[in-house]
Structure formats: structure tokens, C-alpha cells
Design brief:
The complex is a heterodimer. By secondary structure, chain A is of the alpha+beta class. Chain A contains two helices and seven strands, in the order ααβββββββ. In chain A, a hairpin with a 7-residue loop joins strand 5 and strand 6. Chain A is globular. Chain B is mainly alpha-helical. Chain B has one domain: Four Helix Bundle (Hemerythrin (Met), subunit A), CATH 1.20.120. Chain B is about 80% helix and about 0% strand. Chain B has eight helices and no strands. In chain B, helix 2 runs parallel beside helix 8 and helix 3 packs across helix 5. The chains are: A alpha+beta, B mainly alpha. The interface between A and B is medium-sized, with 23 and 22 residues.
Chain lengths: ~160, ~200
């Protein structure tokens, strides 16, 4: 479960590390290239139905899937990227067409799609997300909710140009 | 006589309570019938895992040793059937998740425990069915059968405890605890590790 989250501690640690590395001259091209691409998670692509339509929200809503999309290396936010989302919810199984939808990232590379409440299925309350539009390498994520009662779930993409 | 009736009543209650508690799970409202069937086949399998050591160890009053063995065999076959229904039902519900589990590449660790327990259970059942043909000394056969049965039991316990599903947590934990207790007591009573006669 490699969920990429930038919190203050990590941000400061990364910043200090970069400065120290710069000052001491140990910085290498690998470090300079910065942000590593997000690998696909195990089971991320299960029950994927390519080409989910861009929707205002999936079903009746009440639950928020959120996240960010950035470019590997420089970490630049990627606007207008299509993210496909599906899950087992109060309104349908993962395989059902009505459980699938897509949304686009805004100018800050952030996305947010309202969908029905995710409920535990196959032993864990989890969602599925896909970036599969061709410009960057395809990535499938399968984040797990820390509690089945959560009303939101986040997933973050760092994409590698093809 | 009264004691015997009390033991059986307690056993029936112990087996029914987890099933009834699961029948009240809110998750059932959002599952299709085949998924619900698959889940309950798993729960009934856990109940059979409690009966198996009790029958093997001849703990149940009013059952002769021969009857105990016959019921152990029937419950063993029922356990195999419940595992098969469990897996096929889940496969119909979500094929890729079950294929991942069977290939040991699932995102969820409990799948690995469940699939391992399944194969151990099938092997234990096969040893039971083929006992005459295996022509092993009885105690050697029993050690093998009990070893596979223990792997089935432990794998199933971890599998069930890691899952966030329709089983209610208190009744699930209690059932798993009793399965473990009954299994350990039976292994100790039969002294399965003693392959040579004293």
C-alpha cells in the first residue's frame, strides 16, 4: 500500500535534504530528477472498464474521491488529465457500469468526484482509480479507506511521460 | 442426560449465533445474492471447522466413536463443498480478485491465508478419502491428516480475522477462539505427535 502523501514533515525533510545535498555536493542526477512516478498497485486494475464517461458525479453522491496528478521529475501539476474511478458502493458492484465514472483535473492538477458511499467488498473498503489516456504511462491505484465510515478517500498520481 | 442436552444446546447456539449475527450485517443490503451466498458459505465453513476437532477428539456426548468418525467424515466433505461454493461465488462476483488470490498475487494478505487454507483443506480431505489406499501406518496417516487440518484451521482463522466483511467482530473472534481451543485440545488428547506406540 504505497500511498503518496506530502505532509509538512515530509515536505520539510525533503527540502532540508535537498539543501544539505546541494551544499555538500553529493547531489546526483537521480536526485535532481526528483519525483519518482507512482507505480500501479496490486489489484488496481481489477474490474476496470475502459472509457468511463466524464460525469458530474457517480450516482447519488455523498462520498468524495479526491487527489492530485503531477508529472514525474519536476512534480509540475497536470491540468486536464482524465482520471477514471470505480468502487463497490451502496449503489452497485465494481463490475456494474453505473459504478464507473471519470473526471478531469483542474488548473492545480487536483481532482474531486462525488460518488456513492464506498462499502467494504472483498474484505476491505477500497476504491479504484486509473490514469489511462496515453500521454503518460498508465497507472492503476487501489487505495484502502482507514475506516469504512470515512466519507472521503484520496489518491495521488505522479505520471511518467511516455 | 441433562448435561448431555446442555452440551448439545450450547454447541448449536455456538454455531448459530455467528451465522445469525452475520445475517444482520448492514453490508448485505449492498450485495447481490451470489456474493451473499459466497460469504455465508465461508461462515458455515468456519462453523464446520469447530465441529471437526470436536468430532475427531470424540468430545461430544452421546456419539459413539464410530458415529463420531462418520460425522467427522460428513462434516469434512461439507467443509470441502462450502469452500468450493465460497470460491466459485466470489469468482462469479469479481473474477479478477479471485484469480489474483488463487495465483497468490492479491492486494489483500488475507487472500493468501485463505487460499493456502483451501489447499491444505483439500489435501486433508483427500488423505481422509484415500486412507485405505495410502496404506500408511495409522499413526503416520493421522499425523499427516492432523498436520494438514491444522494448517487449514490456522489459515482460515487468520483469513477470517483480517477480513472486514459480514461477520460481526465479537462473534467472529469468539468462534475463531473456540476453533483454536478445540483444535489444540484435540491434538493434545489424541497425542497426534506420537507416531510410535508406547
Amino acid at each position: 500500500m504505497t500511498r503518496l502523501e506530502i505532509n509538512r514533515r515530509k515536505f520539510i525533510a525533503t527540502g532540508v535534504g535537498t539543501i544539505v545535498a546541494g551544499l555538500t555536493g553529493v547531489i546526483t542526477p537521480a536526485h535532481a530528477s526528483g519525483l519518482a512516478p507512482t507505480p500501479s498497485m496490486r489489484g488496481g486494475s481489477n474490474n476496470y472498464r475502459p472509457g468511463a464517461p466524464i460525469v458530474e458525479r457517480i450516482g447519488g453522491g455523498g462520498f468524495w474521491m479526491t487527489g492530485t496528478v503531477r508529472r514525474a521529475g519536476d512534480g509540475a501539476p497536470l491540468p486536464g488529465q482524465r482520471i477514471q474511478i470505480w468502487a463497490h458502493t451502496t449503489e452497485g458492484h465494481e463490475r456494474d457500469q453505473r459504478s464507473h465514472g471519470a473526471t478531469l483535473t483542474d488548473a492545480n492538477g487536483e481532482f474531486r468526484l462525488e460518488m456513492p458511499q464506498i462499502v467494504p467488498a472483498f474484505g476491505q473498503p477500497h476504491g479504484h482509480l486509473a490514469y489511462d489516456s496515453g500521454e503518460f504511462e498508465t497507472v492503476f491505484l487501489r487505495p484502502v479507506m482507514s475506516s469504512a465510515k470515512d466519507k472521503t478517500l484520496a489518491a495521488h498520481f505522479v505520471l511518467q511521460p511516455v | 442426560m441433562l448435561r448431555q442436552a446442555a452440551v448439545w444446546a450450547a454447541l448449536v447456539a455456538t454455531l448459530l449465533i455467528p451465522v445469525i449475527a452475520a445475517a444482520f450485517s448492514p453490508y448485505l443490503a449492498w450485495r447481490e445474492p451470489i456474493y451473499i451466498l459466497a460469504g455465508f458459505a465461508g461462515i458455515i465453513g468456519m462453523c464446520l471447522l469447530l465441529l471437526q476437532p470436536l468430532l475427531a477428539g470424540r468430545w461430544l456426548p452421546g456419539l459413539s466413536p464410530v458415529n463420531s468418525r462418520h460425522w467427522h467424515r460428513r462434516c469434512g466433505l461439507a467443509l470441502v463443498v462450502s469452500i468450493v461454493i465460497h470460491v466459485i461465488g466470489l469468482w462469479i462476483t469479481s473474477p479478477p480478485d479471485v484469480v489474483d488470490a488463487l495465483l497468490f498475487v492479491s492486494a489483500t494478505p488475507f487472500s493468501t491465508w485463505g487460499v493456502t487454507a483451501m489447499w491444505a483443506g483439500f489435501a486433508a480431505a483427500a488423505m481422509g478419502v484415500l486412507r485405505q489406499r495410502l496404506s500408511l501406518r495409522f499413526r503416520v496417516w493421522r499425523l499427516g491428516h492432523a498436520g494438514l487440518a491444522s494448517a487449514t484451521m490456522l489459515g482460515s482463522l487468520v483469513h477470517a480475522m483480517l477480513i472486514e466483511g459480514t461477520m460481526e467482530v465479537m462473534t467472529k473472534t469468539a468462534l475463531c477462539g473456540l476453533v483454536l481451543l478445540a483444535s489444540v485440545r484435540t491434538l493434545a488428547r489424541l497425542r497426534v505427535w506420537e507416531v510410535h506406540r508406547r
